[in-house]
């Protein structure tokens, strides 16, 4: 490169670069080097020349220190100077158009060229690792070539240069998502930052001011203090709930912040312990058992290194690729860090994850928004009442309302009615203001509190110690799931079976007691002995067989293991699926041979069989054909058929002929019924795995999944390469997705959510973490799943049983329906009370059910009754309904119908009783008010029964299973009688005789009749409309 002083800058003459020799191989070249690393250097030289052309074109119109250069396009000539054919020498010559033309380029062009080359190089390295492209890795020069490209040493690591390390961190920073700080004051601000709280606070201030001006300092502040108490409740209860949520799911916070895990790296020839967030590309990391892989990289050296992220997890020179998030489960070794942060496979997929709101949370938020709107309207009414009361109080002092004297009589009567409503009797708390405030508190916080209790109860009920939830809403969201995506290794254990059919001595038996004890004991020994003689770990199917045998033999299995000596153990070929054990009891000279295996294999080894009475019969040709037909029938029912043979012999070796057939067992997949139940509940199950299509199809059929046509089976590559429109068209039809990558699973989940599905993703590996987080409910099965997968999931099912997943789904649906029942009950009580009090206040100026009584009703009715409804067990018809859609509201049309009709009935009958009750029953006002209150409470108690079934008429079905319901009903009636007694003693309320109590019960019981009539009419109309 030549420098020119005229410009005072750094330039180079293009002619000095005009003869470049690019050599690849060639034994006759003295300057060539063989191997992939030299080919890479050849590419770098070409890139340098290319960058020179780019720089010259970029600067052709710039005047650099007074020199303007506009070169014509250069020409390139190549010639083959190959020697003997062993290599190829290519001469690249740049031919300038004129010897006088020179190009001056700024010196930063070279830096930009190096930077561009470095980025291209790093991109290629990252691509090779992500694609697990072993051929490209070898062409690059292996791990050594990567180390050279990353400017590191495989033995000593990076130079301990802070400037270089800082530059590497800036090149690709660690992906870090810090959780928002939700401390005390943060939650307090979120709770208080609402229009409702602000307006209520304004109400409290005005109430205190108006009250003091009207009544004086001594009693004027009472009403304002009541509103302030309501504000305290509205603020403190949500704060406690939010804190409880944060305490309930502490593990979920681990993924929302950088996990400061310590790793050991080699820098400057020595070992250092640093945080995982300080690892940079080019680091040499030392891994031990239990360590987490801090980044994507390559295996350098080690001993028996195994990871938990794949089934084929042994890491060696043939499988050197290691990915962020995996955990070392065995061995030790060194790795070269290639990419970190968002450049890793895990980071790239996580960047595509959209953390959408929980569908149930969205529904509850919509309902809460409606409640907030109602609360704001009620608060505005309270403000208007306070203002009008203050104005009317001033006019009352002059005993005249001048503005109304000349008005028409109708308007004056209307204004007088308003005056009666808002005028506060001296020395008493204003009825309307306090009542509206009480309604606000009851609706705004009563509903969320009871929903929280319901979710806590059903989470405990659903998990039963077999699972752990890391999201408070996860279990109830499972009740709304429409699609479950699962790998064949996640809960679909094909060997997890249980005994379904027993065939002994020519007939099927459902009750083993009908078989001779001798035959049962021989059969159970035939089951247990071959299993107990095995030294390898038992399969889940063998565990099931041993469990069934232990139920029949009890503690005799332990005695059998202690008293018997194993002489020989033999396992048949893989295709024959069987094993035999030769054993001898202590003190006996006769050996016993026991064989277990596939029914067809063992049947061919048998020559006789036991009858149910214990007699031995010969298997002739006709009987053998009959046995073969029995085996075929059992297999036709998707049962795994196992046969057991037995023989006593004097020989010391196992015999494979002349056995006695002890019996046949038909084993069914323990999860198959749950799969079928899920499908019957309207849930689609999609089998998504990296296995080939034929294997997944057979697994799907064995699991009970229906594959209607060839379009239901797709390859991950076809789905991945389709257009967005094409994927959206095929996503509902997919039953099996074979040969799929983790990114395909993530794409499938996103498409399903976009179509409106609520998706549950069952995964186990680290590379499935993005799909698990993207799904509405992420689930990991068993302790075999990786740590990162478990931390990303909402539910961890420790026993790995698909049956547990169905149980959680059933409890989730039950919890959702029970919440709907409570909402119906709560709204019925509130609307009925508001109607009664508004009508009676307008007409009489007072209310038959005071605020204190309403609070008592909410306590003894909503709390015990609400808990009774929330704990109602699931019904058989529950799982026959379609899942709740994400766009559905918790308040259905059927619920509004029930609420409106019951509230109208209660308001109509009790207001009528307020008008005519004294005359009809010849009672006093006190007795009438007491009967109205008691009737109102009993209407809610009888309405508990109506709320148990939102649509069906039979409200008593299954009520015997809910003991809490009967306890709540009896307790509420006792508390009502106790309240009446206490009110009579301390407040002078009236006592009721038995006839009056019976009349109150009659008013409450009529709600049953109304509910039955409404549901019968509605069902009749619906049936007629459906038929037509």
TrEMBL record:
GO MF: ATP binding; metal ion binding; P-type calcium transporter activity
Domain Cation-transporting P-type ATPase C-terminal residues, every copy: 847-1015
Residue spans crossing the bilayer: 195-213, 225-244, 370-390, 436-458, 827-847, 853-871, 965-990, 996-1014
Subcellular location: Membrane
Catalysed reactions listed for this entry: Ca(2+)(in) + ATP + H2O = Ca(2+)(out) + ADP + phosphate + H(+)
GO cellular component: plasma membrane
Name this protein carries in UniProt: Calcium-transporting ATPase
InterPro entries per the UniProt record, alphabetical: ATPase_P-typ_cation-transptr_C, ATPase_P-typ_cyto_dom_N, ATPase_P-typ_TM_dom_sf, ATPase_P-typ_transduc_dom_A_sf, ATPase_P-type_domA, HAD-like_sf, P-type_ATPase_IIB
Statement: the UniProt record of this protein carries the keyword NAD: no
UniProt function note: Catalyzes the hydrolysis of ATP coupled with the transport of calcium.
Family of the protein in this entry: Belongs to the cation transport ATPase (P-type) (TC 3.A.3) family. Type IIB subfamily.
Keywords noted in UniProt: ATP-binding, Calcium, Calcium transport, Ion transport, Magnesium, Membrane, Metal-binding, Nucleotide-binding, Transmembrane, Transmembrane helix, Transport
Membrane topology: Multi-pass membrane protein
EC number, as in UniProt: 7.2.2.10
Residue ranges of domain P-type ATPase A in the record: 261-352
Predominant location: membrane
């Amino acid at each position: 490169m030549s420098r020119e002083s005229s410009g005072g800058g750094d330039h180079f003459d293009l002619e000095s670069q005009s003869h470049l020799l690019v050599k690849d191989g060639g034994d006759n070249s003295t300057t060539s080097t063989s191997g992939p690393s030299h080919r890479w250097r050849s590419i770098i030289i070409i890139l340098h020349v290319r960058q020179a052309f780019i720089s010259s074109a970029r600067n052709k119109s710039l005047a650099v220190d007074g020199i303007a250069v506009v070169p014509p396009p250069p020409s390139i000539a190549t010639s083959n100077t190959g020697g003997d054919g062993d290599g190829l020498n290519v001469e690249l010559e740049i031919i300038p158009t004129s010897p006088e033309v020179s190009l001056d380029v700024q010196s930063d062009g070279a830096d930009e060229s190096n930077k561009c080359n470095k980025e291209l190089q790093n991109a290629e390295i990252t691509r090779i690792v992500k694609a697990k492209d072993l051929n490209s890795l070898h062409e690059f020069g292996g791990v050594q070539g990567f180390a050279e490209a990353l400017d590191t040493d495989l033995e000593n690591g990076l130079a301990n240069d802070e400037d270089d390390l800082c530059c590497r961190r800036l090149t690709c920073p660690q992906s870090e998502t810090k959780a928002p700080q939700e401390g005390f004051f943060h939650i307090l601000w979120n709770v208080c930052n609402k229009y409702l709280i602000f307006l209520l606070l304004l109400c409290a201030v005005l109430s205190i001011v108006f009250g003091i001006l009207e009544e004086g300092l001594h009693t004027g502040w009472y009403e304002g203090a009541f509103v302030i108490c309501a504000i305290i409740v509205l603020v403190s209860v949500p704060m406690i709930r939010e804190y409880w949520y944060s305490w309930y799911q502490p593990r979920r916070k681990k993924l929302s912040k950088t996990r400061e895990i310590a790793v050991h790296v080699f820098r400057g020839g020595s070992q250092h312990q640093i945080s995982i967030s300080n690892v940079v590309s080019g680091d040499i990391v030392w891994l031990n058992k239990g360590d987490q892989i801090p980044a994507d990289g390559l295996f350098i050296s080690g001993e028996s290194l195994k990871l938990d992220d794949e089934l084929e997890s042994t890491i060696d020179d043939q499988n050197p690729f290691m990915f962020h998030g995996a955990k070392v489960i065995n061995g030790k070794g060194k790795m070269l860090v290639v990419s970190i942060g968002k450049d890793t496979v895990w980071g790239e997929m996580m960047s595509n994850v959209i953390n959408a709101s929980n569908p149930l949370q969205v529904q509850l938020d919509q309902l809460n928004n409606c409640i907030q709107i109602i609360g704001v309207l009620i608060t505005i009414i309270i403000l208007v009442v306070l203002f009008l009361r203050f104005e009317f109080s001033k006019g009352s002092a002059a005993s005249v309302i001048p503005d109304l004297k000349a008005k028409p009589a109708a308007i004056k009567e209307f204004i007088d009615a308003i005056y009666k409503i808002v005028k506060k009797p001296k020395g008493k708390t204003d009825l309307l203001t306090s009542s509206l405030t009480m309604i606000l508190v009851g609706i705004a916080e009563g509903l969320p509190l009871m929903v929280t209790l319901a979710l806590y109860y059903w989470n405990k009920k659903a998990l039963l110690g077999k699972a752990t939830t890391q999201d408070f809403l996860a279990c109830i969201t499972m009740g709304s799931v429409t699609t479950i995506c699962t790998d064949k290794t996640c809960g679909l254990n094909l060997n997890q079976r249980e005994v379904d059919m027993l065939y002994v001595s020519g007939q099927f038996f459902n009750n083993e007691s009908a078989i001779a004890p001798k035959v049962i004991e021989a059969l159970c020994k035939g089951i247990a002995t071959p299993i107990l003689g095995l030294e390898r770990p038992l399969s889940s199917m063998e565990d099931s067989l041993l469990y069934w045998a232990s139920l029949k033999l009890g503690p005799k299995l332990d005695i059998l293991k202690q008293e018997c000596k194993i002489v020989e153990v033999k396992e048949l070929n893989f295709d024959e699926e069987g094993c035999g054990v030769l054993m001898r009891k202590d003190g006996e000279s006769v050996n016993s041979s026991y064989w277990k295996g596939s029914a067809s294999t063992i049947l061919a080894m048998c020559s006789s069989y036991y009858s149910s009475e214990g007699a031995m019969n010969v298997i002739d040709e006709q009987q053998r054909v009959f046995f073969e037909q029995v085996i075929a029938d059992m297999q036709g029912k998707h049962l795994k058929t196992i046969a057991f043979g037995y023989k006593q012999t004097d020989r010391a070796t196992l015999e494979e002929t002349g056995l006695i057939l002890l019996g046949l067992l038909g084993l069914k997949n323990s999860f198959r019924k749950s799969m079928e139940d899920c499908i019957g509940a309207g849930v689609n199950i999609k089998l998504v795995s990296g296995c080939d299509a034929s294997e997944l199809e057979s697994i799907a059929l064995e699991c009970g999944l229906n594959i209607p046509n060839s379009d239901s089976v797709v390859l991950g590559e076809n789905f991945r390469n389709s257009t967005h429109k094409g994927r959206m068209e095929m996503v509902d039809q997919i039953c099996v997705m074979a040969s799929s990558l983790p990114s395909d699973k993530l794409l499938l989940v996103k498409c399903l959510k976009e179509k409106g599905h609520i998706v549950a993703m069952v995964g186990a590996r680290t590379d499935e973490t993005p799909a698990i987080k993207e799904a509405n409910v992420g689930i990991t099965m068993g302790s075999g799943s990786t740590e990162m997968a478990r931390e990303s999931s909402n539910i961890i099912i420790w026993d790995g049983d698909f049956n547990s997943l169905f149980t959680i789904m059933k409890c989730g649906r039950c919890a959702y329906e029970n919440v709907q029942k409570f909402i119906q009950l709560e709204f019925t009580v509130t609307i009925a009370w508001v109607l009664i009090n508004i009508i009676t206040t307008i007409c009489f100026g007072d209310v038959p059910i005071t605020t204190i009584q309403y609070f008592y009703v909410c306590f003894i009715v909503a709390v015990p009754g609400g808990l009774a409804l929330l704990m109602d067990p699931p019904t058989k018809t529950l799982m026959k309904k379609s899942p709740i859609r994400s766009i559905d509201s918790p308040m259905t049309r059927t619920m509004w119908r029930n609420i409106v009709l019951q509230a109208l009935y209660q308001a109509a009958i009790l207001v009528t009783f307020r008008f005519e009750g004294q005359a009809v029953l010849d009672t006093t006002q006190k007795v009438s008010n007491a009967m109205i209150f008691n009737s109102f409470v009993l209407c809610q108690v009888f309405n508990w029964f109506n709320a148990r079934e939102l649509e069906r008429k039979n409200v008593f079905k299954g009520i015997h299973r809910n003991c809490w319901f009967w306890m709540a009903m009896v307790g509420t009636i006792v508390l009502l009688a106790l309240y009446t007694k206490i009110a009579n003693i301390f407040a002078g309320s009236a006592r009721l005789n038995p006839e009056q109590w019976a009349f109150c019960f009659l008013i409450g019981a009529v709600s049953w009749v109304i509910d039955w009539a409404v549901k019968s009419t509605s069902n009749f109309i619906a049936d007629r409309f459906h038929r037509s």
